[in-house]
């Protein structure tokens, strides 16, 4: 049990542990993604599209936990760089579908190398790394469920 004087120390905060770990992780990705001309947010969008191509911008936003408006500049830039195509859905002109181009699909092979580099950089056995990920996802799900109450 923590004493009252230690409760508010920065290093004792779960939120800071998650935040600083997230920053460290994105900094590891940066030099790995640079040769591909990708930013971390673009990489996340590609991960979603490699899993399910041709989905709506709103769906991408939901998967990333972001509003679609925040993703619009990222997707527009990806379109300008020839990674994706955006099209309006015929049944709903307000909705956009995002589809990979051939170039966007080709980057998937390079991403496999990035994933392996990241695993090696973490220096944690694969099973243990997956267990950590599962615990973080469980915590996220609890937090999101409690927000809705």
TrEMBL record:
| Localization (cell) | Cytoplasm
Taken from the UniProt entry, a GO cellular component term is: cytoplasm
Q: Name one GO molecular function term.
A: DNA binding
> Which key words are in the record?
Cytoplasm, DNA-binding, Transcription, Transcription regulation
BP term (GO), one: response to stress
Chief location of this protein within or outside the cell = cytoplasm
Domain called HTH marR-type: residue spans: 11-141
Which Pfam families would you find in this protein's record? MarR
The question of whether Zinc is a record keyword is answered with no
Tell me the protein's name.
MarR family transcriptional regulator
The organism named in the record is: Vibrio mangrovi
Q: Which gene encodes it?
A: ohrR_2
């Amino acid at each position: 049990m923590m004493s009252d004087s230690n409760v508010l120390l920065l290093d004792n905060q779960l939120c800071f542990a998650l935040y600083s770990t997230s920053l460290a992780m994105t900094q590891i990705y940066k030099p790995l993604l640079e040769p591909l001309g990708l930013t971390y947010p673009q990489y996340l969008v590609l991960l979603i599209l490699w899993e399910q191509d041709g989905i709506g911008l709103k769906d991408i936003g939901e998967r990333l936990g972001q509003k679609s408006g925040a993703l619009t500049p990222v997707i527009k830039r990806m379109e300008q760089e020839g990674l994706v195509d955006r099209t309006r859905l015929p049944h709903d002109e307000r909705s956009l579908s995002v589809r990979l181009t051939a170039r966007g699909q080709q980057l998937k092979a390079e991403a496999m190398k990035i994933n392996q580099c990241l695993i090696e950089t973490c220096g944690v056995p694969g099973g243990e790394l997956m267990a950590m990920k599962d615990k973080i996802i469980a915590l996220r799900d609890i937090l999101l469920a409690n927000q809705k109450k």
